[in-house]
Automatic annotation (TrEMBL):
<dbReference type="InterPro" id="IPR016055">
    <property type="entry name" value="A-D-PHexomutase_a/b/a-I/II/III"/>
</dbReference>
<dbReference type="Pfam" id="PF02878">
    <property type="entry name" value="PGM_PMM_I"/>
</dbReference>
<dbReference type="InterPro" id="IPR016066">
    <property type="entry name" value="A-D-PHexomutase_CS"/>
</dbReference>
<feature type="domain" description="Alpha-D-phosphohexomutase alpha/beta/alpha">
    <location>
        <begin position="1"/>
        <end position="45"/>
    </location>
</feature>
<dbReference type="GO" id="GO:0016868">
    <property type="term" value="F:intramolecular phosphotransferase activity"/>
</dbReference>
<protein>
    <recommendedName>
        <fullName>Alpha-D-phosphohexomutase alpha/beta/alpha domain-containing protein</fullName>
    </recommendedName>
</protein>
<dbReference type="GO" id="GO:0005975">
    <property type="term" value="P:carbohydrate metabolic process"/>
</dbReference>
<dbReference type="GO" id="GO:0000287">
    <property type="term" value="F:magnesium ion binding"/>
</dbReference>
<dbReference type="InterPro" id="IPR005844">
    <property type="entry name" value="A-D-PHexomutase_a/b/a-I"/>
</dbReference>
<comment type="similarity">
    <text>Belongs to the phosphohexose mutase family.</text>
</comment>
Amino acid sequence: GGVYVSASHNPAQYNGFKFAIDFSETLVTEDIQALKEMAEKDDFKKA
């Protein structure tokens, strides 16, 4: 897994993150929502 950071010469609203499962598969909307909810609840293992 990983996170791609997108940024460019365009205005800030076009910058962002893309969450990936592997090099060819990114998370879909439902997975991103679940990840957001886990982060908001602090419901994950800390390294």
